[in-house]
Amino acid sequence: MPAFLRSRNALYLLAAFFILFSLLVLNVRTLVPPDEGRYAEMAREMLLSGDWVTTRLNGIKYFEKPPLHTWMSAIAFGLFGLGEWQARLWNGVCGIGGVLMVAYTGQRVFGGRAGLYGAMVLGSMLFWAAASQFNSLDLPVATTMTLALCALLIAQQDGADVAQRRRWMLLCWAAMALSLLAKGLIGIVLPGGVLLVYALASGDRGIWRRLHPVAGLALFLLLSLPWFLLVAARNPEQPQFFFIHEHWDRFFLKTHHREGPWYYFLVLLVPATMPWLLTLPASLAAARTRVTGRFQAPLLLLVWTAFILLFFSYSSSKLPGYMLPVFPAMALLAGLYLERASRRAALAPALLLIVVGVAGLACMPLITVVDKLWLGAGFAAAIICGAAAWLAEWRGQRAGMVLLAALGGWMLTQFSMASYEPAGRHQAGRDAALSIRAELKPDTPVYSVGTYEQSMTFYMRHIVIPVHYTGELDFGLQQESWRGVASMDEFYGRWLLSAGRGVPQYAIVREDLYGVMRLRGLPMIERARGDGVVVVASPLK
């Protein structure tokens, strides 16, 4: 092992650098719609309204997801003000937390350098590193589930005494409660399914007694139940929509239009696990080897990975972020494998980085959407780090190889994400929103005609009145129809009335409807353009 990784202080310094740079990149990009803008706006509105029970989007009831992410982002806004890095802070903390949990658990359960290697693998996996810088719910629920997994692994060690097992199992139950509040029933359904399959596969029937189910379930309900009771008391329509429409229908029906083939997630594993793609099959295969003792930690990690992938592969609703909970388990197995892998096998991540970097640079002339300078820097970093990792492994420095390969994967991910900023800024309509923000007062009407631009409301610091549009606001508008305008004719009447009175008003208009409004002779001045929308204002007298 290289001298700089031998001491505990050096490892703490390495962790500090990882935390620092992971937080610094939170402010690099615009909040891209739909997810980043949506969840930032929900948190802004929660902080502004002071209502921490009924979650709203654009001032309209929005019950698709539980409130944990909104709570934490609203707290970040309250502490540090409104902004892009504040909106992503909860995801950044979760991404860092997952890496540190893998480091601690790997060392505690497997010993040696398995935890260190596993943490480096997870922190540099393309999907995990990217999701840590992206404002959505998928990474936080993956992290809370990782906390449940890690606590379970530590609690079930053969050497754990009764008190240790109880403490760690209570933490596991608490983490499942947080998972429920982060994304919904998968927070308990997935760990429960994993345990069932593990008990059958391992023959370890005694694990059910070692879960401390009575105290654990009591803690789980104490942490998770209050919000569900409060929100249902204030909004009787919420339970049916949340539990039936957002869980049962999402899993079994195609009403959400997010279906994909059964191999959807298997294909996504190819880019998602870069640069460790070639290492993972062998590490998963090695987990089938039975170890001595009652508790089979590698087998549990294998079951965790396979069960979650199969669960979402069967589901009628598929999105890339759904697979995030499997990566910490895969990273732990990869860390365990890298400790004893042959030199030839260990060189695979370095080789893959070099190949991807060279192929990426060769394809640069064909790329038009992104900033080529940033993307080229990412491919160059992959080549340099891959070559350095190759050299380190040939010198017998396995820890140096893993560190350099991880650095290459992390830099490739961050530079690639930064390269999308010009397109992301346009897609978000940030400049268009900022062009009118200073003119908006709390009571200024801003219509959103035929569309709802998820990020523009956040950048305007102002909600909009949806016109001739429902989309994901449909359920909330059914409950509070007065918050929207159902028809274009009604909108025309409102606009003409306010224009005649000289009242300031604005509209974000879908491009095709803007042409219709011009043909109607509606009095308006074009102020800005975004991605497929036009921002107009009523002329002042």
UniProtKB/TrEMBL annotation:
Its main location: membrane. Residues 65-227 form the Glycosyltransferase RgtA/B/C/D-like domain. One of its GO terms (molecular function) is pentosyltransferase activity. Residues 435-537 form the Aminoarabinose transferase C-terminal domain. Keywords: Cell membrane, Glycosyltransferase, Membrane, Transferase, Transmembrane, Transmembrane helix. GO terms for biological process: lipopolysaccharide biosynthetic process; response to iron(III) ion. This is Phospholipid carrier-dependent glycosyltransferase. It comes from Duganella alba.
